[in-house]
Design brief:
The chain is an alpha+beta fold. The chain contains three helices and four strands, in the order E-H-E-H-E-E-H. Helix 1 links the parallel strand 1 and strand 2. The longest helix has 14 residues, at about 15-30.
């Protein structure tokens, strides 16, 4: 099963948009494990993330900020097909 982690800063204005997008992705791709969590200092150190929200696809940075839903779904579906 593929995994999408969305790292957010608690209280950031974009947090709710990230959570809404995560639910939409769950609805479209029910076999995916989609998790939204608060970023920790170790995330910045491990992944080099400086901009939030950050979308991590199987542990790799896919994008930061709030992507368009159609773009994100296309990337996730391509990943499922092995297009990496």
């Amino acid at each position: 099963m593929a995994r999408l982690d969305i790292l957010v800063h608690r209280g950031c204005l974009s947090e709710q948009s990230a959570r809404t997008l995560a639910q939409e992705i769950r609805d479209e791709l029910p076999d995916w494990d989609v998790d939204v969590r608060s970023a920790a200092q170790c995330d910045t150190n491990t992944f080099g993330v400086l901009v939030f929200p950050a979308f991590l696809l199987d542990g790799r940075i896919l994008t930061t900020g709030i992507p368009r839903k159609d773009w994100l779904l296309a990337k996730l579906r391509a990943w499922e097909k092995g297009e990496r």
